[in-house]
Structures are given as structure tokens and as C-alpha cells.
Design goal:
Elements lengths: L2 E8 L7 E7 L6 E10 L2 H8 L9 E2 L3 E9 L11 E4 L9 H4 L16 E3 L6 E2 L9 E5 L3 E3 L6 H7 L2 H13 L6 E5 L3 H13 L3 E6 L2 H9 L4 E4 L5 H8 L5 E6 L4 H9 L1 E9 L13 H7 L2 E4 L7 H13 L9 E5 L4 H9 L5 E5 L2
Parallel strand pairs: 4-8, 11-12, 11-14, 12-13, 14-15, 15-16, 17-18
Antiparallel strand pairs: 1-2, 1-4, 2-7, 3-5, 3-9, 3-18, 5-6, 6-10
Length: 363
């Protein structure tokens, strides 16, 4: 029997979201219906709403950081049961693509999603962001996108593991491979950047430099493990990082803004043979021009990190345990809790730099 749901729908680029009812068909084979408990408000959703990534695909059901309860399971589902509390992953390895066959499921090129099953009350097909759609009371996903977590843990904090926190922590642990006793610089201290800081701390880095142009975000960064702060609006970020590190530069740098300028700074604040990880989503258009000889002489690595190069079935439970043990600060990432009707207000607060993450919560 179809389920009536309610969610935040972006109907056209740059316009306010509409809070609407919509219908969801019963889950098919290997699919589940999830009642959403909480959903983080991520900058990527704002980009989708504004048409940053293109004007195709509207209307979108926004949201991709979600935690909820499994309400219905389709045929063949074995990894979760009705009543399970789950974090939703926007990448779920297929098990059969060239990367999965090579033992690299974190780079799966054919991530699993549910079939299109959500329509507006006017019969329009909804496009759930990143195959999930979590700014809503209910959504349908492929069963392998659902990772169980203990029901005793708070849904708001758990929802953030589903994207921003995992992206940042994974960038440090997996994309960069931060080593104990090393140094790191993080450009952009929003929810993802502060999660990079936490990942670097968990990996044993002893010098962690937070770089931003917002004094409030720099203050917040200290709560997550930053040992030094650099306000790039007031000083040359590369020079400041070099000074902090005895003139050498850092072993690892992370760009969590999506800007050519900050990526260049991240590249040239490194020590010899250092690693630079590009995390920020730039959208179409920006280009980077580099002095190749300088880049060559510095050596090292430049890589892109997608989703922290994570494997959700392995990593989501680990991050949940770290939170439970007090090693991972998720309470500090939750800046405010809002209702579905306050989605536009949450986007506005994010753009003003007032929050790390607003979280939409449902009763």
C-alpha cells in the first residue's frame, strides 16, 4: 500500500523550497521504506536547490544526510529488519563493477539506489538528491544504503555520519592516510572541515592548523582538535603555515571549500612530498592554473576524496562507536535543530556562517 509522505521539494533553480505531501510506492526487491528521524542540512543540498550543479533533474526531494527507522522491507532484504535504526549512505557498493571486482568497493562505479518510487500529488516523478532524499518524513532506498546503529544513540548526531562527518574523517584516515606525529592544515572549517580536523586528531597528528576567514568558525575549530588557527583574511595563509611548521610546511593539507584559490594555497603550504586532498565540491566552471615547475619541485601527491573514500558498512558503525566512547565530537557539529518548515531558514543561517550543521528533526 502506498505511503503518504511530506518533504522539502525544490521545483526550480534558485527558488525557495516547497513543503509538500507526496506518495511513495511500496519498496521493491532489495529496497526499504525508512521513516526519517533526522536529516542534516548540507551545503550540497543548497547547491542543488540553487542550480549550481545544473538545471536538470527538477523537482528534487532534498536531503542526503539521514537517520531513521526501517518501516517496510521489500523482497530479498536480509541486512536490515523492520524497526532497525539506520544511517543512510548515498553510496552503496554494487559488488560487481570493475572496482568492486578489484577489491576496491569504496570506489564503486555503479552505486546501488532504489528504483524511482516517489511522486508528487500531481504525479510528477521526484528526484531524491544523491539517490536518498531525506528532508522528508519517509523515503525509499536500496537496502544496502542502510547501516544499522544502536537505537540508544541520538538520531541528529547519527544522521551527520551519513555524509559530512564521514567525508571529513575519511579524508584524513583513508584519502590522506595521516600518520601519528604528523602535521596537517585544513582550509575551510565548516562541518566537513571540522570533521577532517577530528580525523587528523584520531589518526595521531600533533600539529593541526585550521584555516578560515571567519573568526567564529576558527574558534569552533579548536573544539574539534585544531592546535593552531590561521585567519586567511588577515594574513598570508601559506606563510603563516610555514612559520608554524618551522619553515617546512605541513605533511598533509585538505581543501574543504571548493575554490581554486584555496586549493592553490593548500598545494603550496605542504612540506616536500606532502599530500594535498581536495574535498570541496567546486561545481562547474572554476579552473586552476599552476606553476608546474614549482609543483613538480615540491613533489608529493594531489588527490580528490569522494565521501572520504569510505566503506559505509565498515565505517559508519566505527564512527558511531567513537561517538559513544567520547572520541568523536558530534554534539558540537549540531549547531541547531529545526523543523521541516524551517528548511529555508536553515539554508539562510548556513550561508551567513551561523551554523556548522542545522539538523531537521521529526517527532
Amino acid at each position: 500500500m502506498p505511503t503518504k509522505a511530506r518533504g522539502a521539494i525544490a521545483r526550480s533553480p534558485g527558488q525557495p523550497v516547497h513543503i509538500e505531501e507526496f506518495m511513495i510506492d511500496d519498496p521493491g526487491a532489495n529496497e526499504i521504506l525508512v521513516r526519517i528521524l533526522a536529516s542534516g542540512v548540507c551545503h550540497t543540498d543548497y547547491g542543488v536547490k540553487m542550480g549550481v550543479y545544473g538545471s536538470d533533474g527538477f523537482p528534487f526531494l532534498l536531503g542526503h544526510e539521514g537517520a531513521g527507522i526501517v518501516e517496510k522491507t521489500g523482497p530479498g532484504v536480509t541486512n536490515v529488519s523492520e524497526g532497525d535504526h539506520v544511517i543512510l549512505a548515498w553510496r552503496a557498493p554494487c559488488g560487481s563493477c570493475r572496482f568492486c571486482r578489484a577489491g576496491k568497493p569504496n570506489f564503486c562505479s555503479a552505486s546501488l539506489n532504489a528504483q524511482p518510487r516517489m511522486k508528487t500529488m500531481q504525479g510528477e516523478q521526484l528526484n531524491p538528491v544523491l539517490g536518498i532524499g531525506t528532508f522528508c518524513t519517509h523515503t525509499v532506498v536500496h537496502a544496502t544504503q542502510a547501516i544499522p546503529y544502536p537505537a540508544s544513540l541520538p538520531a541528529a548526531q547519527m544522521s551527520l555520519i551519513g555524509c559530512g562527518v564521514m567525508t571529513g574523517v575519511g579524508a584524513a584516515l583513508y584519502a590522506a592516510g595521516v600518520e601519528p606525529g604528523s602535521s596537517a592544515a585544513v582550509f575551510g572549517c565548516g562541518g566537513v572541515g571540522d570533521s577532517v580536523i577530528q580525523g587528523a586528531r584520531l589518526a595521531g597528528a600533533t600539529t593541526i592548523i585550521a584555516v578560515d576567514i571567519d573568526p567564529q568558525k576558527l574558534e569552533w575549530a579548536k573544539d574539534f582538535g585544531a592546535t593552531h588557527l590561521v585567519n586567511a583574511a588577515e594574513q598570508d595563509a601559506v606563510a603563516a603555515i610555514k612559520e608554524i611548521t618551522g619553515g617546512n610546511g605541513v605533511n598533509y593539507s585538505f581543501e574543504a571549500v571548493g575554490s581554486a584559490k584555496t586549493l592553490e594555497q593548500a598545494l603550496f603550504c605542504r612540506d616536500l612530498a606532502g599530500t594535498c586532498v581536495f574535498i570541496g565540491v567546486p561545481g562547474p566552471g572554476p579552473t586552476l592554473e599552476l606553476p608546474l615547475q614549482k609543483f613538480f619541485d615540491l613533489g608529493g601527491n594531489l588527490c580528490v576524496s569522494w565521501y572520504g573514500n569510505c566503506l559505509p558498512t565498515r565505517d559508519f558503525p566505527m564512527l558511531a562507536q567513537w561517538y559513544e566512547q567520547g572520541q568523536l565530537n558530534l554534539d558540537g557539529v549540531v549547531s541547531r535543530k529545526v523543523s521541516l518548515e524551517e528548511t529555508e531558514d536553515a539554508f539562510a543561517a548556513m550561508e551567513r556562517g551561523e551554523t556548522l550543521r542545522s539538523v531537521i528533526v521529526f517527532d
